[in-house]
Amino acid sequence: MTTPTIDVHAHVLLPEVEETVAGRPERAAARELEARRAGPQALAVNGPMIRDRIPKLTDVKARLAAMDACRVDVQLVSPVPDYHYWADEDLARTVWELANTGTAAHCAQAPERLRGLGLVPLQHPRLAVEALEHALEQGLSGVELSSHAPGLELSDPAYEPLWTRAEETGALLFLHPYGCTLDERLDRWYLSNTVGQPTENAVALSHLIFSGVLDRHPELKLIAAHGGGYLPGHIGRSDHAWRVRPDARGCAHPPSSYLKRLYFDSLVHEPSVLRELIRSAGADRVLLGSDFPFDMGTDDPLAALRDADLPDLDYHAIRGANAASLLRLV
Q1: I need a surface site. Which of 111, 138, 232, 273 has the fewest CB within 10 A?
Q2: What is the pairing mode between strands 172-175 and 221-224?
Q3: What's the pTM?
Q4: What is the pLDDT of residues 76-102, one digit of tens each?
Q5: What DSSP assignment string belongs to 163-192?
Q6: What DSSP designation does 116 have?
């Protein structure tokens, strides 16, 4: 049997979540912060771009037609990454329940072709395990996380129960940053995304590596969006610091070794960068990703993979075999 082509980076928009948070003053404050960080030019482009993609984000028939057009057999679908980490405990519970049940219902319309991820409230670490359990009870494969929550990095000890339970259950954790804390420094030329996203990925992964989270939880199944951002290509600097500075010795082994314990999507936009990611992490740790259906993704992830001119074994591993194993499709 031919291994299916699997895209692990695809999104769904859940109107029920948006309706629940609409009108909240905290939501308005969060939107104001996002607007300052992105800048007016980006906001002017984002609105029409998202509106044009509403059918693919919400309608399963439109999604499947687009998948057929680019020869993708299976998508791992995660909520559009607006995490609402400003929400109090009661609202956070409503958000994750709606996100989990909504994503599961969307995927249930094409169960042979769609798998899903839910959400957990990183701003309330003591509720994170409950939210993960809820996602798994809906038949989802795991959850999507941002790079941090207000005042909390992924290295915070408060997340230890989440890492422990994710490891025990084999749940997938999809690290997908939303926004960037460099704020107005990136408010032009869409730097909030082009520089901000890979920066946030690098910072979050570094927290997980240097804090020893991956030492304590070696079986954690974490997928980093956008090829892990800047970290894989510049991991030598982290290794150097680990060797020469005692304050950088939070992890047991050189930081580069942990890249082979993580997973990365292939969405790096440049064949040479993809080849370097494969060199750093291994072909068995890279998964096909498109960021469907957004403009910063690719409409043809297989073409982007072919452009890297990989050996056949690596190509087919990334095309689908690695993800099929993670999703327990084989």
Answers
A1: 111
A2: parallel
A3: 0.97
A4: 999 999 999 999 999 999 999 999 999
A5: HHHHHHHT-EEEE---S-TTGGGG-STTHH
A6: E
